[in-house]
Design a protein that fits this description.
Largest sheet: 7 strands, parallel
Radius of gyration: 20 Å
CATH class of the largest domain: Alpha Beta
CATH superfamily of the largest domain: TPP-binding domain
CATH topology of the largest domain: Rossmann fold
Mean pLDDT: 86
CATH architecture of the largest domain: 3-Layer(aba) Sandwich
Number of domains: 2
Shape: elongated
Structural class: alpha/beta
Number of strands: 12
Strand order of the largest sheet: 3-12-11-10-4-5-6
Low-confidence stretches: 1-19, 59-67, 176-180
Helix content: 25-40%
């Protein structure tokens, strides 16, 4: 048995060995509560907290069954054809994407923040559902689809006005149900996008990009530093709904492990670095975090 870190003095606050997997039908919730009670917690979230809101992820078994290559940042910058394809699909997918509402996992994290348990939230998601749920101390590691940025002049434009401009530029464009994809766009055959008119920056007629970090691009240094500061100020790290397959999120688990603070994981399926964790609850984030919030608030 490994005794947890600062703030614990009683044998009843011990946790299972690193890498131990718990289930909801066992003592998982009890040990999760025990691990986090009385500590300042920073939360690190991924796509698994938003799947219950209807937003697909990349690495669940269902997602892996779909053959789909994520948008690559360098290619987006380089290729006008790829940008046309992205914006055509994004225009079709946006209405459904923005209709998504916070689920129980988002609401639970906001409740934990309001109660003073959670002191900060680092999210890899780009859907702003944490904000909609009421979280305030949010660091968006990969940006947000609600904004666009000009690659030439740096101007920011909200996504909804851009949507209206794209519809005006493409008045006969198709509508109707299309499968939503993790990037907030929709799956469409390439032949449908050949005549799509790509929008340009209102200020300089430059190239527009969603204000997110695509694969192949790096998170801004100041954002990483803000997130590290949250981890350094915390007494425990809660990882929820992410496999931490990409380093941009995994680095914060490493930071917490280096500080020797408790690390709790709630996720279905393998998580990179889970052998460093104090405990892992192998379950969905919605019910688990809702119960955690009920116990700690």
């Amino acid at each position: 048995m490994r005794r947890s870190g600062a703030g614990t003095s009683s044998p009843t606050h011990r946790h299972r060995a690193r890498g131990a997997t718990l289930s909801l039908v066992s003592a998982g919730i009890e040990e999760l509560v025990d691990c986090l009670r009385g500590r300042r917690v920073v939360v690190l979230t991924g796509a698994g907290v938003s799947t219950e809101s209807g937003i697909p992820d990349y690495r669940s078994p269902e997602a892996l069954a779909r053959v789909r290559r994520p948008i690559q940042g360098p290619e987006f910058v380089r290729s006008a054809a790829l940008r046309r394809r992205y914006w055509a699909r994004a225009m079709v997918g946006w209405e459904r994407f923005q209709e998504a509402r916070p689920c129980s996992a988002h609401l639970a994290i906001a409740r934990l923040e309001a109660a003073g348990v959670v002191i900060g939230l680092i999210t890899q998601n780009v859907d702003r559902l944490h904000h909609a749920a009421g979280s305030r101390q949010v660091i968006e590691l990969h940006g947000a689809l609600a904004e666009t940025v000009c690659l030439d002049c740096g101007a920011i434009e909200a996504r909804n006005p851009l949507q209206a401009r794209m519809r005006a530029l493409n008045p006969s464009w198709i509508d109707g149900p299309s499968p939503m994809a993790p990037d907030g766009d929709a799956d469409l055959p390439d032949e449908l996008v050949e005549h799509f008119v790509t929008p340009a920056c209102l200020h300089c007629d430059g190239v527009l990009k969603p204000n997110v970090v695509f694969f192949g691009h790096n998170v801004a240094r100041e954002v990483v530093d803000q997130a590290f500061a949250k981890v350094d100020d915390a007494q425990a790290l809660l990882v929820a709904g992410t496999s931490l397959a990409v380093f941009s999120g995994y680095r914060f688990l490493l930071r917490a492990a280096g500080r020797n603070i408790p690390i709790a994981i709630v996720n279905r399926g393998p998580v990179r670095g889970e052998e460093r964790a104090t405990l892992k609850v192998e379950a969905g984030t919605g019910d688990t975090l809702a119960e955690l919030a009920r116990c700690l608030t």
